[in-house]
From TrEMBL:
Superkingdom classification of source: Bacteria
Any one GO biological process: carbohydrate metabolic process
Residues covered by the F5/8 type C domain: 745-893
InterPro entries referenced in this protein's UniProt entry, alphabetically: 6-blade_b-propeller_TolB-like, FA58C, Galactose-bd-like_sf, Glc/Sorbosone_DH, Ig-like_fold, PKD/Chitinase_dom, PKD_dom, PKD_dom_sf
Residue ranges occupied by any PKD domain in the UniProt entry: 478-559
Species of origin: Catenuloplanes atrovinosus
Pfam family, one: GSDH
Lineage of the organism: Bacteria, Bacillati, Actinomycetota, Actinomycetes, Micromonosporales
Keywords: Signal
Record's protein name: Glucose/arabinose dehydrogenase
Span of the signal peptide: 1-17
Coiled coil: none
Length: 895
């Protein structure tokens, strides 16, 4: 099992506005007609989480205007605006759904207001555009079924950065960011203290395999360098787009970068590190080598950018760009993850990564946390999977939070459902990774953090709410918790209410809470006891409001929806039936219906389908993201998406009646899996499968039909890759078969590159035959040779030749190829030495006799570290007048 996302990418399309989808192995809905309270967030003493806005459809980004308005971007493409924090009914500021590609992680994710808003009434958006390069939206109409699904590498889109005016009219500033896969899409937007606009975006690559651009049909849809079908070592596609600015000889893309822009034009801002480049995209880039920089924050009063970059299988990163005028900064993806080399991409021996390993230039994360480790020791936040999903700085001055939080960086993780604070070590200083605190645990699907009016922290909950974390100095308000049963049914409907779960954090208020029930929300208090009942007549829906007050009149309020004279609909999934299974790429057809006691059979317009992808780190620990949605249909079909294992699919059908009551039913689809076994010859060497390097032999379980990138790590342990048992190249893709399979990578002893070897000396050289200098033993041609002086061998032996390896190596082998003409001389008895300095040789590492043959001979011996190798010929094959050598080479590893 691979432990990471891995992402996620960041999924970010988590759950319905009605509430989060359970991610347990089985999905038991609440008892019918009983309203349950949401789980309370655990926050530090003095803080309280409050829900500000509800009823949103996958809110992704929140922005606060100086005039009190609050803008919320929904993933599908609508921007809603609330007149104030007290406004429960937003207006639609702009509807971009026809242009936005809303599928999987793609959607409207970035939102920013001009610094002088509303005097300059510009709203900026960053979103996936629903069309391939050169085409016009709507092209895909949020569905990739026609080209094999969203994970097949054929549903290609670009992304847009646009400016909206006061009426919502759109002006496109940039259209770029080619995205071959549905994850690692666009990211965030913010203005710096310099008035420039900053934007981030992911690499648009496959999140399940090592992706250098080899997947998809037609090949290379993003026109990545060097062109045509991508293959190692020269490929620059897939995740390597994040390194594109390093190769300025070809046009530069913006995938996997942070850009700094002139907000009026979208051009690269003056002062950028590459402002003088002839490439317009290079002029925009201030940081690159990013996988999925989903959210970032700019430190107040500065242009420092603090990026949260979602990792693959191991590390989540917070990266710091201290000065956008220097660099640009390379954070290393995909060659690095965290501070270390990424095993999958390292194993593929790609030139873009190998050159980075050699030359350096990668900047390590400011802070990184491993998927298997807690961010704060002893906290309740789960481990095993991660996706950093929010970043916001608390003001250095002002605000109601305690002084320790001034200048702190808040960051969140969608998969772990937690928010942390990284506090400055000194007042006015930068956040210190050693000063981390758990701030909200659990949080509700956090996908964006923002500081709002009064300095409070707000976050967008992908399930449909916006939440605020408030601080109360001194007396704290109570927490109102209410149950109602039933919440719907035939009229007259008698409902029992229970508020005994309410509490107050102040010990002095224990037992002193006061309750006020307003069963019809008309301003009249109907009951003042913790439990009560009320009978509702036909009509409604009704809202019951509970207000709980403490001894100092601080209070909290909660509402419950009651529907009298109406019962919930009953949705049914007809197909797939039973316990369906799938392999990647199989077409799955689904159909369903719903009936209602009041309306009869509901029309298709009352139905909403969603395909949920559950990605698990253990059988008990999963996160969920929406792979696709269908609204207003009784049935449809989709190709089963590719995903690493363990994972499973779930079809969700929501039926909503005319009275607004909704019921959800689901059907789980289990993948059909297969075991793939990897061995090496000799055994015990390493092979990379997707993201992970493992020592053979090992077996991994994958989904049938899934794509899996495999690399035979080379060189390693004195060996070099020779061949796969199934005839593939060193790095390739295996489409998982239906039956278990074994794949063997054969290795040969590693030979040092001839380009690094030199002749140090020879004891004798034939002077008559000038075509036989000693350098011939290193030219790679078996037909050329060096030999000793003719006729002098017996009188002058032992003869020798010395090799300079050019550096220190652990030498384990010497390869000797005799001259191919049998009538000429060959070495018979020999000695081999290895020396660190070329002076002190010690005892031979090997002695022996070579047979009278033209076949290459290999001498293997225990590893000895040195730079110089000496081969001594003690005697020749009988009857020959000299000793000849066609080729020499040495095996070993850098030492």
């Amino acid at each position: 099992m691979r432990s990471a996302r891995r992402i996620l990418s960041v999924v970010l399309a988590a759950v319905t506005a009605a509430g989060p989808i359970a991610v347990h192995d089985h999905h038991a809905p609440p008892a019918e007609g009983r309203a349950l309270p949401a789980a309370a967030a655990a926050v530090p003493t003095g803080f309280r989480e409050q829900t500000v806005f509800t009823g949103l459809d996958q809110p992704m980004n929140i922005e606060f205007a100086p005039d009190g308005r609050v803008f919320v971007a929904e993933k599908a493409g609508r921007i809603k605006v609330f007149d104030s924090l007290a406004d429960p009914t937003p207006a639609v500021f702009a509807d971009l759904r026809a242009n936005v590609h809303n599928l999987h992680d793609r959607g409207l994710l970035g939102l920013a207001l001009h610094p002088d808003f509303p005097a300059v009434p510009h709203v900026y958006v960053l979103y996936a555009y629903d069309a391939p390069p050169g085409r016009t939206a709507p092209y895909w109409n949020d569905s990739c079924a026609g080209v094999g699904g969203n994970a097949g590498g054929r549903c290609v889109v670009t992304s847009r950065l646009s400016r909206l005016d006061a009426s919502g009219a759109e002006t496109v500033l940039i259209q770029d960011w080619c995205q071959q896969y549905p994850s690692h899409s666009t990211g965030d937007l913010h203005f710096g203290a310099d008035g420039m606009l900053y934007a981030s975006a992911g690499d648009g690559a496959n999140y399940g395999v090592v992706d250098y651009g080899q997947l998809g049909s037609p090949a290379n849809p993003c026109a990545d360098a060097p062109g045509g079908t991508m293959a190692p070592p020269g490929a620059e596609g897939g995740a390597l787009r994040s390194q594109d600015v390093r190769t300025l000889a070809d046009p530069t893309g913006l995938d996997g970068t942070l850009v700094r822009l002139d907000p009026a034009t979208g051009a690269g801002a003056g002062g950028n590190a590459l402002a003088a480049s002839p490439d317009p995209n290079a002029r925009r880039i201030v940081a690159y080598g990013l996988r999925n920089p989903y959210r970032f924050a700019i430190r107040p009063g500065t242009n420092e950018v603090w990026l949260g970059d979602v990792g693959w299988n191991a590390w989540e990163e917070i990266n710091r760009v201290t000065d956008p005028g220097t660099g640009p900064v390379n954070f290393g993806w995909p060659c690095f993850e965290g501070a270390a080399r990424q095993g999958g991409y390292d194993g593929a021996n790609l030139t873009m990564c190998e050159s980075l390993y050699t030359s350096g230039g990668q900047t390590a994360p400011f802070y990184a946390y491993h998927h298997d480790a807690a961010v704060v020791s002893g906290e309740t936040c789960p481990t095993g999977g991660s996706s950093v999903s929010g970043a916001a700085f608390y003001p250095a001055t002002g605000g109601d939070y305690p002084a320790a939080y001034r200048g702190a960086l808040f960051f969140s993780d969608y998969t772990r459902d937690c928010v942390w604070a990284m506090l400055p070590a000194t007042p006015g200083g930068a956040p210190d990774p050693a000063s981390r605190r758990t701030f909200v645990a659990p949080a509700a699907n956090p996908v964006d953090l923002a500081i709002g009016p009064g300095g409070d922290l707000y976050y967008a909950d992908a399930a449909g709410t916006v939440r605020r974390i408030r601080y109360f100095e001194g007396n704290q308000p109570p927490s109102a918790v209410a149950f109602a049963s039933p919440t719907s049914g035939a009229a007259p409907l008698t409902v029992t209410f229970d508020a005994t779960g309410s509490s107050d954090p102040d010990p002095s208020d224990a037992g002193l809470l006061r309750y006020a029930w307003d069963f019809t929300d008309d301003g009249t208090v109907d009951a003042t006891t913790p439990t009560a009942s009320y009978t509702y007549p036909d009509g409604g829906p009704y809202t019951a409001r509970l207000t709980v007050s403490d001894s100092l009149d601080a209070h909290d309020t909660v509402t419950l929806a009651i529907s009298s004279g109406n019962t919930p609909p009953e949705p049914v999934i007809d197909t797939p039936s039973g316990s369906p299974t799938f392999a990647v790429g199989e077409t799955i057809t689904f159909t369903g219906r719903a009936t209602d006691a009041q309306q009869g059979t509901l029309p298709a317009s009352a139905l909403r389908w969603r395909l949920l992808q559950h990605h698990c780190y253990t059988p008990q620990s999963c996160h969920v993201h929406v792979a696709q949605e269908w609204n207003g249909v009784a049935g449809e079909a989709f190709p089963a998406p590719d995903h690493d294992y363990p994972s499973y699919l779930e079809l969700e059908l929501t039926a909503t009646d005319a009275g607004g009551l909704s019921v959800v039913t689901t059907r789980r689809l289990e993948p059909r899996t297969v075991d793939l076994t990897f061995v090496t010859s000799p055994p015990g060497l390493q092979v990379t499968v997707n993201s992970t390097v493992r020592t053979t032999p090992f077996t991994t379980t994958v989904i049938q039909g899934s794509a899996n990138t495999v690399s035979a790590v080379t060189p390693q342990a004195g060996h070099a890759f020779s061949a796969w048992s199934h005839g593939a190249g060193q790095t390739h893709v295996i489409t998982a078969p239906a039956a278990p399979a074994t794949y063997t990578a054969t290795y040969v002893k590693q030979r040092l590159p001839r380009s690094g070897l030199k002749i140090r000396s020879v004891s004798t050289q034939e002077t008559v035959d000038e075509t036989a200098p000693a350098t011939r033993v290193l030219d790679g041609h078996p037909g050329t040779y060096w030999h000793t002086e003719w006729g002098a061998f017996l009188a002058r032996y032992p003869h020798e030749i010395q090799l300079d390896l050019g550096g220190s190596y652990k030498v384990t082998d010497v390869y000797y190829l005799p001259r191919q003409n049998l009538s000429h001389g060959r070495i018979a008895n020999y000695e081999i030495y290895v020396s660190a300095d070329g002076t002190n040789w010690g005892t031979p590492v090997a002695t022996g006799t070579w047979p009278d043959t033209t076949a290459e001979q290999t001498v293997t011996f225990p590893a000895k570290t040195g730079r110089y190798v000496r081969i001594r010929a003690l005697s020749e094959v009988a009857g020959r007048a000299w000793a000849s050598v066609a080729e020499l080479n040495v095996g070993g590893a850098p030492g």
